[in-house]
Amino acid sequence: MAKRQKPLKAPDKLVFLLSFVPYLLERRVVDVSEAAQHFGMTEEEIRDAVRLIATSGLPGETGTYQPNDLFDIDWDSFEEDDVVIVVHHVAIDDAPRLSAREAAALIAGLQYLSASPENAGSASLASLMAKLTAGASAAPSRLAVAETEADASLALIREAVAEGRQLEFDYLNARGERGRRRADPLRIISQDADWYLQAYCHTREDVRNFRVDRMSDLVLTDEPIGDHSGRAVPDTLFQGSESDLDVIVDVEPSALPLLADYLADSSTREIDGRLRVTLRLAHVHGLKRLVAGLPGLVTVVAPAEARAAVAEWAAAGLAGYGDREASAGPR
Predict the structure, then answer these.
(1) Which domain holds residue 266?
(2) Which pLDDT band, with edges at 50, 70 and 90, does 2 fall under?
């Protein structure tokens, strides 16, 4: 075990102790050397931590420490065999526990992460799910996270990026236009709940961003990607162009940071408690998803083309609910 170059600072030491005590209680019998290896510390640092824990506790009603108010260890095993056994602990049982529903939700999220290729067979995720199950106030409900078409596409895209091979796919853009593309995948980017492939598009002869859930019929070809080392690949997901459309909206001040990627400039004007700002978008169709993600927080002001596009989209969605109720019949 390599010696630590610098002693732990107070905040880091506290974090270590908060992890060390549950570790000891879970393992019950722990060799000092085993604990040192687990936490990446020296054996003497572990012994010092054990001695510190043995002087810690929670004062009783009198405000003083009685024997049952302190942690206690098996001193014979510690001093003679270099083994740590906690024989009495305080306060730990009073820690809040996750409800069965909370634990089930977290476990479902971890199951989703485990399904991605880079996390396949992850021992850390499996261990965390086991701890959440054991530490919940009741047995968590068993949930299954179904793989979507986008998840399957994402796995193939990751393989293409890792192996440096070209992809072919059908792509439906925001204007509703579908076409077959051939691209050199460069990297995968996530924004909120969406995944994007940044790739050199042979059709457009430029770097483009493709939303994964709009890609279909993906084929991983045997063709290697070209050399794009001399090409400027943007660091950000969205880049402006001369053909972009300026759209004026009124937005709730609390929601303004969520529009930071779309702001044309930093100018704002207060109108009836909202902020009037200008957004720069590739086309009006991009407004539909933007407004849907911020319901009631964004109002499109101009141009008329943008207002009409959002209004028609909202009316079509509302009509869909009417059709569903009609097909359900009387109750």
Answers:
(1) 245-325
(2) very low
